[in-house]
């Protein structure tokens, strides 16, 4: 472990030439002081009610300035929500934009990071334009959109850094000039000391050490995790002591580990210069443990650290405040005088206040447009019911959009049934503004750019007369091979994906054909696998991140949900990561391989396309579409379908299945049954018996659950049958309830029914092992037959007498 302390730093002081470095160092001090005033003023803005919540980076200013000195264009930051000084010093944001985000300005011009969708200190830079085209990442300093999940920023650094390694080692990627300069980029990750207790931290550190990925991980250590001290959080009370086993030795992989005090300016600069050099030139990962940091205002604006810190600790923090230490060091080193530094303090304070006021003024000007228009329209309505709401709105000096639109909606309700002058104009304005507010607050769940899946040409599968019948796994294998040959950006990884070609042989032989850079194994680490895919995808590659079984998605759900699924939304379409998560499920039996937790997926992964193909040919068509588009997706293959025979299309790598469209796979007249995945085969089996009972079943394959049946095929079927049964393997009230809601509400299917719609799902518990466990737990052919017969009995008991 390489320790850099003030004692060692004192030797460095002589190296800081007054002529060469004075202006730079004094400017660093100015940035640190400005950032500190941002924290102090930001907290006041929260406490006065102007902002909802605040979290700040006070106490960590010098360490982040040291990082900014080695942060180059093309590099990436995957950080912690206390990195404001780094963001200011590197130019990734400004103080004005910081306060605009604090006030939740809903315009991306004012809050480029999130258009008011994220709290302050959650930064990002835009890497795609309004059309969804990639911007040149090598021309800017990049930061992946921050998330609040503790430790959540760790997983994606695997892919962000691995991309540099691939760009350096694979010459076939050299044409992707927008994403790398020969693999010379470094990923700078920051994490709080308490978050090093998270499993994802150790999972990622292990994976980074194995792959020797060019990252520099900074651990900001102020001794606490909110109120919990390091002694309770960490073995030995010191995370770098815990990590000593990861220290790189001769002939081994691992990390270079540095330990430096957060108030030691020269020591910090030296540590980060060395760490960045190791990572950039040699692709050796580094950890910089920054200790003895302070947190002058406590954890956040919602509490006070005086409640849990002793008087002695608080006094120590005052003495060891990094800015106070730098102030004294500048004087002692004859770099600046006390008068010069005091003047900088005053100038910084005035500048921060000016930028805060400008941001607050512009925020209110934006809101005032809506308020002014609403007041003008309400003033044109001559009715006593409007007078009080209008006066209340006029009395507000700085009305929020909530207050504006709540007033308008209240008036509309009060004027119900009245034909009065001005009401029509108010209604027309309100309907127009619904679209405006939809864009402000509800848009960009997907980027919907020029390369969206909806823009991929639909090409039908073609079959020759002598088309082969082969195993489903072979259909997928040939599909992957054709696409890997077509597009050098494609790569696949996961447990057992490389050497043996995955547990079901979808990638069999492809590592030999395309190399270990493109098809490779990983350890058992689901969070890291998905995070790796996210990082690779935002850097221009096309990763397939395999989760071995659908049940195991649970172990990577935080990364998939908190980071990937919300990425487009939380950046207002400024970032995208078109990773494909490939997995398999619907086995129909076994507590640990039941494989149908669809309600969990639907509840957590809004922002991903959820594809549930019924066989491997349909899966291949979906992959062909997704490989040609630029939005993230989860593809769940049927676990019990790999060895079922399927007809091989002649255009196996080219035909496409449109995402978001259902398919009618059996025409019928009496009842519509909607299902997906493996359960469709059970439904088809039941339909044949129902035919013998005189009941004609129409079967709709949902194909994708997100988006669901964009063409409203289910409703079209109900116009004919007037009866609906939804069948799936999820728990009661799970995916079947979602499908029902989509059909009855979004497609107005309720008005097409002549009997109660039904769902048929698995039991509430997981299925026991074995075929009998499957039969008594999940929908069987017998269950479907009897449920359909019962529904027909309700409408015509004479023709379909009760079975029981």
From TrEMBL:
Transmembrane segments: none annotated. Keywords: Oxidoreductase, Thiamine pyrophosphate. This is Thiamine pyrophosphate-dependent enzyme. PANTHER family: PYRUVATE DEHYDROGENASE E1 COMPONENT BETA SUBUNIT (PTHR43257), PYRUVATE DEHYDROGENASE E1 COMPONENT SUBUNIT BETA (PTHR43257:SF2). It comes from the Bacteria. Residues 470-644 form the Transketolase-like pyrimidine-binding domain. CDD domains: TPP_E1_PDC_ADC_BCADC. The keyword Oxidoreductase applies. Pfam families: E1_dh (PF00676), Transket_pyr (PF02779), Transketolase_C (PF02780). Its cofactor is thiamine diphosphate. E1 component of the 2-oxoglutarate dehydrogenase (OGDH) complex which catalyzes the decarboxylation of 2-oxoglutarate, the first step in the conversion of 2-oxoglutarate to succinyl-CoA and CO(2). It comes from Sphingobacterium kitahiroshimense.
């Amino acid at each position: 472990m390489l320790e850099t302390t003030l004692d060692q730093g004192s030797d460095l002081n002589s190296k800081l030439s007054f002529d060469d470095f004075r202006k730079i160092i004094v400017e660093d001090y100015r940035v640190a002081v400005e950032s500190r005033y941002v924290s102090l003023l930001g907290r006041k803005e929260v406490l006065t009610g102007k902002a909802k919540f605040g979290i700040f980076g006070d106490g960590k200013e010098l360490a982040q300035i040291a990082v900014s000195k080695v942060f180059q264009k093309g590099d990436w930051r995957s950080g912690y929500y206390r990195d404001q000084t780094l963001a200011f010093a590197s130019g990734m944001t400004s103080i004005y934009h910081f306060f605009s985000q604090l006030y939740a300005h809903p315009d991306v011009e004012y809050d480029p990071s999130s258009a008011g969708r994220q709290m302050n200190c959650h930064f990002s830079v835009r890497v795609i334009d309004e059309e969804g085209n990639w911007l040149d990442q090598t021309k800017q300093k990049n930061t992946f959109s921050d998330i609040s999940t503790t430790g959540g920023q760790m997983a994606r650094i695997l892919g962000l850094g691995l991309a540099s390694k691939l760009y350096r080692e694979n010459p076939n990627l050299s044409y992707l000039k927008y994403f790398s300069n020969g693999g010379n980029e470094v990923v700078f990750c920051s994490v709080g000391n308490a978050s090093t207790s998270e499993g994802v931290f150790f999972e990622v550190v292990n994976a980074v050490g194995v792959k020797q990925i060019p990252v520099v991980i900074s651990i900001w250590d102020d001794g606490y995790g909110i109120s919990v001290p390091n002694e309770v959080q960490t073995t030995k009370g010191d995370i770098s002591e815990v990590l000593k086993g990861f220290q790189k030795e001769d002939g081994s992989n691992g990390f270079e580990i540095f330990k430096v005090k957060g108030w030691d300016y020269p020591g910090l600069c030296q540590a980060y210069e060395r760490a960045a050099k190791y990572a950039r030139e040699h692709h050796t990962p580094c950890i910089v443990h920054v200790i003895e940091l302070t947190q002058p205002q406590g954890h956040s604006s919602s509490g006070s650290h005086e409640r849990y810190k002793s008087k002695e600790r608080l006094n120590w923090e005052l003495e060891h405040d990094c800015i106070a230490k730098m102030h004294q060091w500048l004087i002692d080193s004859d770099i600046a005088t006390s008068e010069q530094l005091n003047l900088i303090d005053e100038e910084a304070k005035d500048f921060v206040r000016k930028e805060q006021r400008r941001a607050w003024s512009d925020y209110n000007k934006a809101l005032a447009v809506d308020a002014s228009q609403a007041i003008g329209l309400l003033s044109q309505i001559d009715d006593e019911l409007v007078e009080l709401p209008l006066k209340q709105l006029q009395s507000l000096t700085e009305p929020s959009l909530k207050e504006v639109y709540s007033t308008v909606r209240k008036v509309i309700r009060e004027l119900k049934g009245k034909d009065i002058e001005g009401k029509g104009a108010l209604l027309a304005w309100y309907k127009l503004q619904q679209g405006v507010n939809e864009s402000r607050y509800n848009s960009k769940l997907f980027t919907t750019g020029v390369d969206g899946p909806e823009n991929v040409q639909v090409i039908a599968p073609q079959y020759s007369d002598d088309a082969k019948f082969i195993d489903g796994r072979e259909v997928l294998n040939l599909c992957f091979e054709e696409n890997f040959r077509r597009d050098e950006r494609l790569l696949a990884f996961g447990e057992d994906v490389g050497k043996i070609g995955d547990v079901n042989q979808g990638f069999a032989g492809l590592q030999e054909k395309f190399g270990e850079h493109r098809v490779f194994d990983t350890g058992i680490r689901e969070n890291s696998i998905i995070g790796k895919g996210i990082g690779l995808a935002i850097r221009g590659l096309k990763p397939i991140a395999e989760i071995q079984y659908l049940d195991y998605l649970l172990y990577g759900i935080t990364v998939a949900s908190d980071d990937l699924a919300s990425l487009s939304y939380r950046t207002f379409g400024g970032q995208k990561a078109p990773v494909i998560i490939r997995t398999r499920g619907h086995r129909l039996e076994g507590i640990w391989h039941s494989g149908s937790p669809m309600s969990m997926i639907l509840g957590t992964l809004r922002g991903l396309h959820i594809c549930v193909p019924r066989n491997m040919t349909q899966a291949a068509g979906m992959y062909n579409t997704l490989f040609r588009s630029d939005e993230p997706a989860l593809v769940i293959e049927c676990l019990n379908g790999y060895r079922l025979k399927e007809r091989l299309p002649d255009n196996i790598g080219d035909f496409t299945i449109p995402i978001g469209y259902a398919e009618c796979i059996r025409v019928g007249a009496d009842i519509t049954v909607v299902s997906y995945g493996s359960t469709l085969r059970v439904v088809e089996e039941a339909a044949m018996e129902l035919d013998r009972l005189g009941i004609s079943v129409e079967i709709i394959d949902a194909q994708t659950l997100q988006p669901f049946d964009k063409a409203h095929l289910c409703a079209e079927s109900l116009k004919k049958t007037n009866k609906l049964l939804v069948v799936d393997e999820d728990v009661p009230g799970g995916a079947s309830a979602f499908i029902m809601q989509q059909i009855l509400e979004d497609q107005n299917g309720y008005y097409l029914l002549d009997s109660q719609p039904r769902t048929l799902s698995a039991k509430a518990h997981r299925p026991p092992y074995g075929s009998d466990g499957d039969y008594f737990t999940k929908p069987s052919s017998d269950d479907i037959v009897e449920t359909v017969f019962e529904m027909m009995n309700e409408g015509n008991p004479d023709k379909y007498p009760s079975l029981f």
